[in-house]
C-alpha cells in the first residue's frame, strides 16, 4: 500500500492512500539513518497499513517548514499595504529555484496601486507572474491550473491577502486551515504542523513556516550556485570571457552585458549582488 504523508503529529503519521487516511508509525530504521518522515513524503506501508516501511527518494525537502516533494511555491505580494520588497521576493524565488521548486509570483491589490514595478522587475526573469483581481476573479483560473496535479504552498507577509486568496480558490480549504489554526492556537508561538489538503485538482500544504517571507529558512545557497537560482542568467552561461565568472566586476561578463542591454532587470541583478556578498560572508557553521 502506498500513499503520501498528509501530516505528522507526535510520532504518528497520517498517510493518504487510495482507501483513505491511515494512522501509522515509522520503522526505527529511519531514525538510525537520520531520516525523519515529513508531510509530502511518498511512502510504502506494511501489509497491516500501520507502519511506514519505505520512503521514496525525495525531489526536495525543507527543514523549516518540514515538507518534502514540493512542486510550486506561490509567493503572494501586494502592490501596497504592505509595499513589497523586491529583494525579499528575489531571495524567495532564488530559494525555490535552488530547491527545484517552481516559484510563481502572485500580485494582489493591483486595484489600490499599480503593479508596474513588480511586473517590470520579473518580465524577463522566466518566473511566472499572476496578476490577481479579487473583484473580478481574474487570475484565479491561472492559479488553479498551476495547482492541478501538483503539491503547492503559499507564502507571503501578513496583510497581502493570502486568506482572501485561499477562500476565493476553495472556501472549504480556507475553513479547514482556519480550524487547524484555532486548534493549534497560532499566534501564540505554539508548535505548528504542516498539513496537506486536496484541492483544485492538486494538493495545497498549510505550511505555517511559509507564513512570513524568511527566505534564509528555506535554503542556504552557496555563492557558486547562486547564479543558477536566477533563471534569466542561464542564456549567458559559457559566454563570459573568464571561466568561473561571478558576474560581479569581471571584464567580458556576458551577464553584465545583458544587464546593460536591458535584458536583465537591474533590481534583480542588485539582489544577486547583495545575496552573493552575504553568501561570501557566511561562516561554515551558519549554513
Based on the model shown, name its key terms.
287 residues, alpha/beta, 6-stranded mixed β-sheet, 5-stranded mixed β-barrel, 13 strands, globular
Question: What would your notes on this structure say?
Answer:
This protein has 287 residues and is α/β, with parallel strands linked by helices. Helix content is 27%, strand content 23%. The chain has eight helices and 13 strands. It is globular and about 65 Å long.
Question: Could you give a short description of this structure?
Answer:
With 287 residues, the protein is of the alpha/beta class. The protein is 27% helix and 23% strand.
Q: What percentage of amino acids are in beta strands?
A: 15-25%
Structural class: alpha/beta
CA-atom Rg in angstroms: 20 Å
Number of strands: 13
Listing every helix as H and every strand as E from the N terminus to the C terminus, the arrangement reads EEEHEEEEEHEHEHEHHEEHH
Number of helices: 8
Q: Low-confidence parts lasting 5 or more residues at pLDDT below 50? A: 180-191
Layout of SSEs?
Layout: E1 2-9, E2 12-17, E3 20-26, H1 28-32, E4 42-45, E5 51-55, E6 61-62, E7 67-68, E8 72-78, H2 86-98, E9 102-108, H3 116-122, E10 129-131, H4 140-147, E11 151-155, H5 162-169, H6 171-184, E12 195-199, E13 202-206, H7 254-260, H8 266-281
Parallel strand pairs: 3-5, 8-9, 8-11, 9-10, 11-13
Antiparallel strand pairs: 1-2, 1-4, 2-3, 4-5, 6-7, 12-13
Helix pairs in contact: 2-8, 5-6
